[in-house]
Amino acid sequence: MTTIKFNQHLNRHPFLLFTISMVIAIGIAMLIFVLSMKPPPRDVRLMILFLFGTSFVTTSLAYICYRFDLVGRFPSVRWGILVTVVLTIVLIFPNVWMIARLMFISLHDLQLVAVLLIFAGVAATAFGYFITSTMTHRINNLSQAVERLGEGHFDTRLDARGSDEIAQLSHTFNSMVDSLQRIDAEKREIEQTRRDLTAWVSHDLRTPLASIQVMIEALLDDVVDDKETTERYLQTSLTEIRHIGRLMDSFFELSQLDTGRIELEREYTSLHSLISDTMSRMMPQAERQQIQLAGQVAEDIDPVFMDATKIQQVLYNLIDNAIRYTAAGEHILVRARRIGAQVQVDVHNTGTHIDVEHLPHIFDNFYRGGRSRAQSADGHRGTGLGLAIARAFVEAHSGTIRVESQPERGTTFSFVIPAHD
Ligand SMILES: Nc1ncnc2c1ncn2[C@@H]1O[C@H](COP(=O)(O)OP(=O)(O)OP(=O)(O)O)[C@@H](O)[C@H]1O
Ligand SMILES: [Mg+2]
Q: Is the domain of 142 the same as that of 204?
Protein backbone atom coordinates (compact mmCIF):
# COMPACT_ATOMS: atom_id res chain seq x y z
CA MET A 1 0.00 0.00 0.00
CA THR A 2 2.71 2.45 1.03
CA THR A 3 4.78 1.48 -2.02
CA ILE A 4 1.94 2.41 -4.33
CA LYS A 5 1.61 5.82 -2.72
CA PHE A 6 5.38 6.34 -2.96
CA ASN A 7 5.43 5.49 -6.65
CA GLN A 8 2.45 7.68 -7.35
CA HIS A 9 4.21 10.50 -5.59
CA LEU A 10 7.34 10.05 -7.67
CA ASN A 11 5.42 9.76 -10.90
CA ARG A 12 3.74 13.05 -10.17
CA HIS A 13 7.17 14.75 -9.96
CA PRO A 14 9.29 13.18 -12.69
CA PHE A 15 11.50 16.23 -13.10
CA LEU A 16 12.29 16.34 -9.37
CA LEU A 17 13.08 12.63 -9.41
CA PHE A 18 15.46 13.02 -12.30
CA THR A 19 17.19 16.04 -10.75
CA ILE A 20 17.68 14.14 -7.47
CA SER A 21 19.17 11.21 -9.42
CA MET A 22 21.56 13.55 -11.20
CA VAL A 23 22.67 15.17 -7.92
CA ILE A 24 23.28 11.70 -6.45
CA ALA A 25 25.23 10.73 -9.59
CA ILE A 26 27.38 13.88 -9.28
CA GLY A 27 27.94 13.18 -5.58
CA ILE A 28 29.09 9.60 -6.18
CA ALA A 29 31.30 10.62 -9.12
CA MET A 30 32.92 13.42 -7.08
CA LEU A 31 33.49 11.16 -4.10
CA ILE A 32 35.23 8.52 -6.20
CA PHE A 33 37.15 11.21 -8.06
CA VAL A 34 38.41 12.91 -4.88
CA LEU A 35 39.14 9.71 -2.95
CA SER A 36 40.86 7.79 -5.70
CA MET A 37 42.74 10.53 -7.56
CA LYS A 38 43.32 13.15 -4.84
CA PRO A 39 43.12 15.96 -7.46
CA PRO A 40 44.21 19.56 -6.85
CA PRO A 41 41.38 21.99 -5.87
CA ARG A 42 41.36 23.52 -9.35
CA ASP A 43 40.53 20.15 -10.95
CA VAL A 44 37.82 19.53 -8.36
CA ARG A 45 36.22 22.88 -9.18
CA LEU A 46 36.47 22.23 -12.91
CA MET A 47 35.01 18.76 -12.46
CA ILE A 48 32.03 20.07 -10.43
CA LEU A 49 31.35 22.80 -12.99
CA PHE A 50 31.55 20.35 -15.83
CA LEU A 51 29.37 17.71 -14.20
CA PHE A 52 26.67 20.28 -13.38
CA GLY A 53 26.75 21.56 -16.94
CA THR A 54 26.36 18.15 -18.54
CA SER A 55 23.80 16.99 -16.01
CA PHE A 56 21.71 20.07 -16.88
CA VAL A 57 21.81 19.06 -20.56
CA THR A 58 21.05 15.41 -19.69
CA THR A 59 18.16 16.29 -17.38
CA SER A 60 16.65 18.63 -19.95
CA LEU A 61 16.92 16.00 -22.69
CA ALA A 62 15.42 13.32 -20.46
CA TYR A 63 12.57 15.63 -19.51
CA ILE A 64 11.84 16.42 -23.16
CA CYS A 65 11.77 12.65 -23.91
CA TYR A 66 9.39 12.15 -21.00
CA ARG A 67 7.19 15.18 -21.65
CA PHE A 68 6.58 14.36 -25.32
CA ASP A 69 6.57 10.60 -24.69
CA LEU A 70 9.29 10.12 -27.31
CA VAL A 71 10.09 6.60 -26.09
CA GLY A 72 6.43 5.61 -26.48
CA ARG A 73 6.46 6.69 -30.14
CA PHE A 74 8.73 3.85 -31.22
CA PRO A 75 7.03 0.93 -32.99
CA SER A 76 8.18 -1.47 -30.26
CA VAL A 77 9.18 -1.35 -26.60
CA ARG A 78 12.46 -2.95 -27.65
CA TRP A 79 13.30 0.01 -29.90
CA GLY A 80 12.44 2.41 -27.13
CA ILE A 81 14.81 0.71 -24.70
CA LEU A 82 17.60 0.29 -27.26
CA VAL A 83 17.45 3.94 -28.31
CA THR A 84 17.57 4.91 -24.62
CA VAL A 85 20.73 2.80 -24.18
CA VAL A 86 22.33 4.33 -27.28
CA LEU A 87 21.36 7.85 -26.20
CA THR A 88 22.90 7.27 -22.75
CA ILE A 89 26.16 6.15 -24.33
CA VAL A 90 26.12 9.08 -26.75
CA LEU A 91 25.72 11.38 -23.74
CA ILE A 92 28.50 9.67 -21.79
CA PHE A 93 30.88 9.86 -24.73
CA PRO A 94 31.35 13.69 -24.96
CA ASN A 95 31.40 13.83 -21.14
CA VAL A 96 34.33 11.47 -20.92
CA TRP A 97 36.03 13.12 -23.89
CA MET A 98 35.74 16.55 -22.33
CA ILE A 99 36.91 15.46 -18.90
CA ALA A 100 39.86 13.65 -20.41
CA ARG A 101 40.81 16.79 -22.30
CA LEU A 102 40.48 18.91 -19.16
CA MET A 103 42.57 16.50 -17.17
CA PHE A 104 45.26 16.59 -19.86
CA ILE A 105 45.18 12.87 -20.44
CA SER A 106 47.45 11.90 -23.32
CA LEU A 107 45.91 11.45 -26.76
CA HIS A 108 46.95 7.81 -26.68
CA ASP A 109 45.03 7.18 -23.44
CA LEU A 110 42.08 9.14 -24.73
CA GLN A 111 41.90 6.97 -27.84
CA LEU A 112 42.03 3.87 -25.63
CA VAL A 113 39.19 5.21 -23.45
CA ALA A 114 37.19 5.95 -26.61
CA VAL A 115 37.70 2.41 -27.92
CA LEU A 116 36.65 0.94 -24.57
CA LEU A 117 33.62 3.19 -24.48
CA ILE A 118 32.55 2.15 -27.98
CA PHE A 119 33.01 -1.48 -26.99
CA ALA A 120 30.98 -0.97 -23.80
CA GLY A 121 28.28 0.80 -25.82
CA VAL A 122 27.94 -1.99 -28.38
CA ALA A 123 28.01 -4.64 -25.62
CA ALA A 124 25.32 -2.75 -23.66
CA THR A 125 23.15 -2.46 -26.78
CA ALA A 126 23.47 -6.20 -27.51
CA PHE A 127 22.74 -6.98 -23.88
CA GLY A 128 19.75 -4.64 -23.98
CA TYR A 129 18.55 -6.38 -27.11
CA PHE A 130 18.45 -9.78 -25.42
CA ILE A 131 16.87 -8.46 -22.25
CA THR A 132 14.19 -6.66 -24.20
CA SER A 133 13.56 -9.80 -26.31
CA THR A 134 12.07 -11.65 -23.33
CA MET A 135 10.06 -8.60 -22.42
CA THR A 136 8.67 -8.00 -25.90
CA HIS A 137 7.96 -11.70 -26.22
CA ARG A 138 5.78 -11.57 -23.11
CA ILE A 139 4.10 -8.36 -24.24
CA ASN A 140 3.35 -9.99 -27.61
CA ASN A 141 1.81 -12.97 -25.79
CA LEU A 142 -0.33 -10.58 -23.82
CA SER A 143 -1.51 -8.76 -26.92
CA GLN A 144 -2.28 -12.05 -28.72
CA ALA A 145 -4.21 -13.25 -25.68
CA VAL A 146 -6.29 -10.04 -25.66
CA GLU A 147 -6.92 -10.52 -29.38
CA ARG A 148 -8.07 -14.11 -28.81
CA LEU A 149 -10.29 -12.96 -26.00
CA GLY A 150 -11.78 -10.32 -28.31
CA GLU A 151 -12.68 -13.16 -30.70
CA GLY A 152 -14.64 -14.79 -27.88
CA HIS A 153 -12.15 -17.49 -26.79
CA PHE A 154 -12.83 -17.43 -23.06
CA ASP A 155 -10.46 -20.35 -22.44
CA THR A 156 -7.42 -18.09 -23.11
CA ARG A 157 -5.00 -17.91 -20.17
CA LEU A 158 -1.49 -16.44 -19.76
CA ASP A 159 1.56 -17.77 -17.97
CA ALA A 160 1.61 -15.41 -14.98
CA ARG A 161 4.84 -16.57 -13.36
CA GLY A 162 7.10 -13.90 -11.88
CA SER A 163 6.32 -10.74 -10.00
CA ASP A 164 7.10 -7.87 -12.37
CA GLU A 165 4.49 -5.60 -13.96
CA ILE A 166 3.95 -7.90 -16.94
CA ALA A 167 3.38 -10.89 -14.63
CA GLN A 168 0.94 -8.79 -12.62
CA LEU A 169 -0.81 -7.72 -15.79
CA SER A 170 -1.03 -11.38 -16.91
CA HIS A 171 -2.43 -12.29 -13.52
CA THR A 172 -5.05 -9.54 -13.74
CA PHE A 173 -5.83 -10.63 -17.28
CA ASN A 174 -6.38 -14.24 -16.12
CA SER A 175 -8.70 -13.14 -13.29
CA MET A 176 -10.62 -10.93 -15.70
CA VAL A 177 -11.03 -13.83 -18.16
CA ASP A 178 -12.18 -16.09 -15.29
CA SER A 179 -14.96 -13.61 -14.51
CA LEU A 180 -15.85 -13.20 -18.18
CA GLN A 181 -15.98 -16.98 -18.63
CA ARG A 182 -18.26 -17.32 -15.61
CA ILE A 183 -20.55 -14.54 -16.86
CA ASP A 184 -20.60 -16.13 -20.31
CA ALA A 185 -21.57 -19.54 -18.85
CA GLU A 186 -24.34 -17.92 -16.79
CA LYS A 187 -25.54 -16.04 -19.85
CA ARG A 188 -25.68 -19.25 -21.88
CA GLU A 189 -27.56 -21.00 -19.11
CA ILE A 190 -30.12 -18.18 -18.89
CA GLU A 191 -30.40 -18.24 -22.68
CA GLN A 192 -31.07 -21.99 -22.59
CA THR A 193 -33.69 -21.58 -19.86
CA ARG A 194 -35.34 -18.84 -21.85
CA ARG A 195 -35.54 -21.16 -24.86
CA ASP A 196 -36.93 -23.97 -22.67
CA LEU A 197 -39.38 -21.55 -21.19
CA THR A 198 -40.63 -20.34 -24.55
CA ALA A 199 -41.14 -23.92 -25.69
CA TRP A 200 -42.86 -24.78 -22.43
CA VAL A 201 -45.13 -21.74 -22.39
CA SER A 202 -46.20 -22.25 -25.99
CA HIS A 203 -46.90 -25.90 -25.33
CA ASP A 204 -48.45 -25.89 -21.88
CA LEU A 205 -50.30 -22.61 -22.07
CA ARG A 206 -51.78 -23.04 -25.51
CA THR A 207 -53.55 -26.31 -24.63
CA PRO A 208 -55.71 -25.04 -21.70
CA LEU A 209 -56.38 -21.75 -23.49
CA ALA A 210 -57.59 -23.56 -26.60
CA SER A 211 -59.89 -25.80 -24.59
CA ILE A 212 -61.35 -22.81 -22.64
CA GLN A 213 -61.91 -21.04 -25.94
CA VAL A 214 -63.73 -24.04 -27.46
CA MET A 215 -65.98 -24.46 -24.41
CA ILE A 216 -66.89 -20.77 -24.12
CA GLU A 217 -67.59 -20.57 -27.84
CA ALA A 218 -69.86 -23.62 -27.53
CA LEU A 219 -71.72 -22.00 -24.64
CA LEU A 220 -72.09 -18.66 -26.47
CA ASP A 221 -73.29 -20.27 -29.71
CA ASP A 222 -75.89 -22.30 -27.78
CA VAL A 223 -74.36 -25.51 -29.10
CA VAL A 224 -74.67 -26.75 -25.53
CA ASP A 225 -77.95 -26.03 -23.81
CA ASP A 226 -78.49 -28.78 -21.24
CA LYS A 227 -77.72 -27.73 -17.67
CA GLU A 228 -75.44 -30.66 -16.91
CA THR A 229 -73.07 -30.10 -19.86
CA THR A 230 -73.06 -26.35 -19.29
CA GLU A 231 -71.99 -26.90 -15.70
CA ARG A 232 -69.38 -29.40 -16.74
CA TYR A 233 -67.97 -26.95 -19.31
CA LEU A 234 -67.84 -24.16 -16.77
CA GLN A 235 -66.22 -26.44 -14.19
CA THR A 236 -63.59 -27.60 -16.69
CA SER A 237 -62.92 -24.01 -17.73
CA LEU A 238 -62.41 -23.07 -14.08
CA THR A 239 -59.95 -25.94 -13.64
CA GLU A 240 -58.05 -24.83 -16.74
CA ILE A 241 -57.96 -21.22 -15.51
CA ARG A 242 -56.60 -22.41 -12.14
CA HIS A 243 -53.99 -24.38 -13.98
CA ILE A 244 -52.95 -21.30 -15.97
CA GLY A 245 -52.79 -19.36 -12.69
CA ARG A 246 -50.46 -21.98 -11.20
CA LEU A 247 -48.32 -21.92 -14.33
CA MET A 248 -48.00 -18.16 -13.99
CA ASP A 249 -47.03 -18.40 -10.30
CA SER A 250 -44.35 -20.97 -11.08
CA PHE A 251 -43.24 -18.88 -14.03
CA PHE A 252 -42.73 -15.87 -11.77
CA GLU A 253 -40.82 -17.90 -9.18
CA LEU A 254 -38.69 -19.45 -11.89
CA SER A 255 -37.75 -16.05 -13.29
CA GLN A 256 -36.52 -15.17 -9.80
CA LEU A 257 -34.43 -18.33 -9.60
CA ASP A 258 -32.93 -17.86 -13.03
CA THR A 259 -31.70 -14.39 -12.38
CA GLY A 260 -30.19 -15.63 -9.10
CA ARG A 261 -32.25 -13.08 -7.22
CA ILE A 262 -33.58 -15.20 -4.39
CA GLU A 263 -33.73 -12.69 -1.61
CA LEU A 264 -34.13 -14.34 1.76
CA GLU A 265 -35.66 -12.60 4.72
CA ARG A 266 -34.35 -14.84 7.43
CA GLU A 267 -35.26 -14.62 11.08
CA TYR A 268 -35.62 -16.98 14.04
CA THR A 269 -39.05 -18.60 13.59
CA SER A 270 -40.86 -21.67 14.79
CA LEU A 271 -40.51 -24.48 12.27
CA HIS A 272 -43.00 -26.46 14.37
CA SER A 273 -45.77 -23.88 13.78
CA LEU A 274 -44.82 -23.56 10.12
CA ILE A 275 -45.22 -27.31 9.58
CA SER A 276 -48.54 -27.46 11.50
CA ASP A 277 -49.87 -24.48 9.57
CA THR A 278 -48.89 -25.92 6.18
CA MET A 279 -50.33 -29.32 7.06
CA SER A 280 -53.68 -27.94 8.21
CA ARG A 281 -53.88 -25.95 4.97
CA MET A 282 -53.30 -29.08 2.95
CA MET A 283 -55.51 -31.36 4.99
CA PRO A 284 -58.68 -30.77 2.89
CA GLN A 285 -56.77 -31.68 -0.28
CA ALA A 286 -55.48 -34.88 1.39
CA GLU A 287 -58.92 -35.77 2.75
CA ARG A 288 -60.50 -35.26 -0.64
CA GLN A 289 -58.10 -37.82 -2.05
CA GLN A 290 -58.57 -40.07 1.00
CA ILE A 291 -54.95 -39.84 2.02
CA GLN A 292 -53.83 -39.78 5.64
CA LEU A 293 -51.58 -36.83 6.44
CA ALA A 294 -49.66 -36.96 9.74
CA GLY A 295 -46.84 -34.96 11.33
CA GLN A 296 -44.06 -35.75 13.80
CA VAL A 297 -42.01 -32.75 14.93
CA ALA A 298 -39.27 -33.03 17.57
CA GLU A 299 -39.76 -30.89 20.71
CA ASP A 300 -36.32 -29.28 20.51
CA ILE A 301 -36.62 -28.15 16.89
CA ASP A 302 -37.26 -24.42 17.49
CA PRO A 303 -36.23 -21.77 16.82
CA VAL A 304 -34.84 -22.02 13.27
CA PHE A 305 -33.18 -19.18 11.38
CA MET A 306 -35.00 -19.19 8.04
CA ASP A 307 -37.20 -17.38 5.56
CA ALA A 308 -40.54 -18.82 6.66
CA THR A 309 -42.34 -18.02 3.37
CA LYS A 310 -39.73 -19.82 1.30
CA ILE A 311 -39.53 -22.86 3.58
CA GLN A 312 -43.32 -23.04 3.61
CA GLN A 313 -43.24 -23.07 -0.19
CA VAL A 314 -40.76 -25.98 -0.05
CA LEU A 315 -43.02 -27.87 2.36
CA TYR A 316 -46.04 -27.08 0.22
CA ASN A 317 -44.39 -28.34 -2.97
CA LEU A 318 -43.23 -31.59 -1.30
CA ILE A 319 -46.55 -32.36 0.44
CA ASP A 320 -48.47 -31.36 -2.70
CA ASN A 321 -46.46 -33.89 -4.71
CA ALA A 322 -46.94 -36.58 -2.08
CA ILE A 323 -50.71 -36.04 -2.18
CA ARG A 324 -50.90 -35.85 -5.95
CA TYR A 325 -48.72 -38.77 -6.84
CA THR A 326 -49.96 -41.29 -4.31
CA ALA A 327 -53.18 -43.27 -4.47
CA ALA A 328 -56.23 -43.18 -2.16
CA GLY A 329 -55.71 -45.02 1.13
CA GLU A 330 -51.96 -44.33 1.31
CA HIS A 331 -50.15 -42.38 4.06
CA ILE A 332 -48.03 -39.26 4.21
CA LEU A 333 -45.76 -38.52 7.16
CA VAL A 334 -43.99 -35.19 7.66
CA ARG A 335 -41.10 -35.56 10.13
CA ALA A 336 -38.82 -32.84 11.45
CA ARG A 337 -35.86 -33.19 13.78
CA ARG A 338 -32.67 -31.52 14.80
CA ILE A 339 -29.32 -33.05 13.77
CA GLY A 340 -26.52 -31.14 15.47
CA ALA A 341 -26.62 -27.57 14.24
CA GLN A 342 -29.05 -28.45 11.46
CA VAL A 343 -32.67 -29.37 11.04
CA GLN A 344 -33.92 -32.12 8.78
CA VAL A 345 -37.43 -32.35 7.37
CA ASP A 346 -38.65 -35.55 5.67
CA VAL A 347 -41.82 -35.83 3.62
CA HIS A 348 -42.54 -39.51 3.24
CA ASN A 349 -45.38 -41.07 1.30
CA THR A 350 -46.30 -44.70 0.83
CA GLY A 351 -47.66 -46.14 -2.34
CA THR A 352 -45.68 -44.43 -5.10
CA HIS A 353 -42.11 -44.52 -6.13
CA ILE A 354 -40.07 -42.71 -8.74
CA ASP A 355 -38.35 -44.90 -11.32
CA VAL A 356 -34.58 -45.03 -11.12
CA GLU A 357 -34.24 -43.48 -14.58
CA HIS A 358 -36.18 -40.38 -13.44
CA LEU A 359 -34.40 -39.89 -10.11
CA PRO A 360 -31.34 -37.98 -11.39
CA HIS A 361 -33.56 -35.44 -13.21
CA ILE A 362 -36.31 -35.00 -10.70
CA PHE A 363 -35.04 -31.59 -9.50
CA ASP A 364 -34.51 -30.20 -13.02
CA ASN A 365 -36.68 -27.38 -14.40
CA PHE A 366 -39.75 -28.66 -16.25
CA TYR A 367 -38.97 -32.29 -15.51
CA ARG A 368 -42.04 -34.40 -15.05
CA GLY A 369 -41.84 -38.08 -14.42
CA GLY A 370 -43.70 -40.39 -16.80
CA ARG A 371 -47.02 -40.88 -15.02
CA SER A 372 -47.57 -37.31 -13.91
CA ARG A 373 -47.83 -36.08 -17.50
CA ALA A 374 -51.35 -37.38 -17.55
CA GLN A 375 -53.95 -35.09 -16.08
CA SER A 376 -54.94 -36.22 -12.59
CA ALA A 377 -58.50 -36.50 -11.25
CA ASP A 378 -58.56 -32.86 -10.07
CA GLY A 379 -57.40 -31.64 -13.46
CA HIS A 380 -53.86 -30.92 -12.29
CA ARG A 381 -51.08 -31.18 -14.78
CA GLY A 382 -47.66 -30.72 -13.33
CA THR A 383 -45.40 -27.98 -14.60
CA GLY A 384 -42.28 -29.83 -13.50
CA LEU A 385 -41.12 -26.80 -11.54
CA GLY A 386 -42.19 -27.65 -7.97
CA LEU A 387 -39.03 -29.54 -7.04
CA ALA A 388 -36.71 -27.18 -8.95
CA ILE A 389 -38.13 -24.29 -6.92
CA ALA A 390 -37.89 -26.31 -3.68
CA ARG A 391 -34.24 -27.10 -4.35
CA ALA A 392 -33.39 -23.48 -5.17
CA PHE A 393 -35.03 -22.25 -1.95
CA VAL A 394 -33.28 -24.89 0.19
CA GLU A 395 -29.92 -24.15 -1.43
CA ALA A 396 -30.44 -20.43 -0.87
CA HIS A 397 -30.53 -21.38 2.85
CA SER A 398 -27.17 -23.18 2.36
CA GLY A 399 -29.05 -26.46 2.69
CA THR A 400 -29.42 -29.65 0.67
CA ILE A 401 -32.37 -31.65 -0.60
CA ARG A 402 -32.49 -35.30 -1.69
CA VAL A 403 -34.90 -38.06 -2.54
CA GLU A 404 -35.07 -41.77 -1.76
CA SER A 405 -37.60 -43.91 -3.53
CA GLN A 406 -38.21 -47.66 -3.55
CA PRO A 407 -41.19 -49.65 -4.81
CA GLU A 408 -42.08 -51.24 -1.46
CA ARG A 409 -41.21 -48.34 0.81
CA GLY A 410 -42.56 -45.40 -1.12
CA THR A 411 -40.89 -42.03 -1.59
CA THR A 412 -39.11 -39.75 0.89
CA PHE A 413 -37.96 -36.21 0.12
CA SER A 414 -35.61 -34.82 2.79
CA PHE A 415 -34.12 -31.40 3.16
CA VAL A 416 -31.56 -30.15 5.64
CA ILE A 417 -30.91 -26.50 6.51
CA PRO A 418 -28.74 -24.89 9.19
CA ALA A 419 -30.71 -24.05 12.33
CA HIS A 420 -28.69 -20.92 13.08
CA ASP A 421 -27.20 -17.93 11.31
N1 LIG B 1 -43.90 -38.01 -3.96
C2 LIG B 1 -43.74 -38.33 -5.24
N3 LIG B 1 -44.07 -39.57 -5.67
C4 LIG B 1 -43.90 -39.91 -6.96
N5 LIG B 1 -43.44 -39.10 -7.90
C6 LIG B 1 -43.11 -37.85 -7.54
C7 LIG B 1 -43.23 -37.41 -6.20
N8 LIG B 1 -42.83 -36.14 -6.13
C9 LIG B 1 -42.45 -35.81 -7.39
N10 LIG B 1 -42.62 -36.82 -8.24
C11 LIG B 1 -42.29 -36.83 -9.68
O12 LIG B 1 -41.40 -35.78 -9.91
C13 LIG B 1 -41.86 -34.94 -10.96
C14 LIG B 1 -41.40 -33.53 -10.72
O15 LIG B 1 -42.08 -32.98 -9.62
P16 LIG B 1 -42.31 -31.43 -9.55
O17 LIG B 1 -43.00 -31.12 -8.30
O18 LIG B 1 -41.02 -30.77 -9.85
O19 LIG B 1 -43.24 -31.14 -10.80
P20 LIG B 1 -44.77 -31.41 -10.95
O21 LIG B 1 -45.36 -31.89 -9.69
O22 LIG B 1 -44.92 -32.28 -12.16
O23 LIG B 1 -45.32 -29.99 -11.32
P24 LIG B 1 -45.56 -28.74 -10.33
O25 LIG B 1 -44.63 -27.71 -10.87
O26 LIG B 1 -46.96 -28.37 -10.52
O27 LIG B 1 -45.22 -29.18 -8.97
C28 LIG B 1 -43.33 -35.13 -10.92
O29 LIG B 1 -43.88 -34.87 -12.20
C30 LIG B 1 -43.49 -36.58 -10.53
O31 LIG B 1 -43.38 -37.41 -11.67
MG1 LIG C 1 -45.11 -30.78 -7.91
A: no
